[in-house]
Amino acid sequence: MRAMAMVPTYNEALNIESLLREILSQGSDIGAVVVDDNSPDGTAAIVERLRQEDPMVHLVLRKEERGRGTAGIVGFQYAVSQGAEFVIEMDADFSHLPSYIPYFLSQMDDCDLLIGSRLIPGGGERGRHFLRKWITRLANAYIRFVLSLPIRDCTSGYRIFRREVLKNIDLDQMMSKGPAVVEEVLYKAYKRGFRIKEVPYILEERKAGESTFNRKTMLNVLMMMVKIRWKYRNYPPKNSS
Ligand SMILES: Nc1nc2c(ncn2[C@@H]2O[C@H](COP(=O)(O)OP(=O)(O)OP(=O)(O)O)[C@@H](O)[C@H]2O)c(=O)[nH]1
Ligand SMILES: [Mg+2]
Fold first, then answer.
1. Nearest Cα to 201, choosing from 122, 140, 129, 143?
2. From the CA of 127, which ligand is nearest?
3. Average of pLDDT values for 155-170?
4. 234 Cα–ligand 1 center, Å
5. Ligand sitting nearest the alpha carbon of 176
6. Alpha carbon of 174 to those of 72, 184, 205: distances in Å?
7. Is the entire prediction scored with pTM above 0.85?
8. Which ligand is nearest the CA of 66, by number?
9. Residue 115 φ then ψ, to 5°
10. 117 has which bridge partners?
């Protein structure tokens, strides 16, 4: 398998089947792993049915743990263990359209981490309230400042990692249990000196189901940035580690 999509899910029964079918239709060498935290709506049962139909579909079902952060890490580790050369991180709600995957993969020649970016020319967010768009912008301005990152869209959850990145950022030692894991992974890859590139994409509003985004998780993410900056202040570049 050349590339594996890594999709964390919580209550995505309305989206997951069509999403997986669309991901798999992007190429015969593209598979997917869903990391589900025992969603009460039965997401995992749907994935299990698809897995029996198609060996390119994988399921990691977590019965004890819950959280976007730890789910993403388990998913990355799983994809690396399956030998995927590229790991595509994406949400299950169709805000990250699978049709971008072939184009994104074609852009991997000169980078180790590709960020699907809403905040560079050509990128954007469609179907969203303007306040939500401003939250994206303001949160990114703050995160860019706290972490001193030369990246416009630090909060993007649509990304492709070369497997070397995931093998070199100590995935077994992460702080974030929740969505701040997106920035923690990015910051560690940046400190390690991996080549990071932003490619524009348009985020679509969630197709079906309910968002887990709320004020509390957002404030938690903002606070985590200071902790991340401090914890990794001496995180060494890859050659010296
Ligand atoms: N495994 C797992 N996945 C989760 C958890 N919370 C959220 N997710 C998934 O993480 C992805 C992003 O969550 P969303 O609820 O869309 O949150 P968001 O994208 O930050 O918010 P919106 O912009 O409003 O869509 C989705 O695929 C969710 O199903 C969790 O606790 N465990
Ligand atoms: Mg979403």
1. 122
2. 1
3. 98
4. 31
5. 1
6. 11, 8, 29
7. yes
8. 1
9. -110, 120
10. 200
Q: Which of 51, 67, 54, 76 is nearest to 9 (CA)?
A: 67
pLDDT tens for 186-226 read 999 999 999 999 999 999 998 899 888 889 999 999 999 99
CA atoms within 13 A on the CB side of 12: 25
Task: Among 6, 10, 46, 77, say which to mutate for ligand 1: greatest number of ligand atoms within 8 Å of CB.
Answer: 10
Nearest CA to ligand 1 atom 31: 67
What's residue 212's pLDDT? 86
78: left (phi over 0), alpha (psi -120 to 50) or beta: alpha
Look at the chain and count its residues.
Answer: 241
Query: Would you list the domain boundaries of the chain?
Result: 3-240
User: Do residues 200 and 120 touch, judged by C-beta distance below 8 A?
Assistant: yes
Mean pLDDT, all residues of the chain: 96
**Does residue 228 contact residue 185 with C-beta atoms inside 8 Å?**
no
Q: Does the Cβ of 92 fall within 6 Å of ligand 1?
A: yes
SS3 content of the chain, % helix, strand, coil (to 5): 40, 20, 40
- Do 113 and 159 touch, CB atoms closer than 8 A? yes
Per DSSP, the three-state class of 37 is: coil
**For residue 37, pLDDT beyond 60:** yes
8 CB within 6 A, ligand 1: yes
Which numeric CATH code is attached to 3-240?
Answer: 3.90.550.10
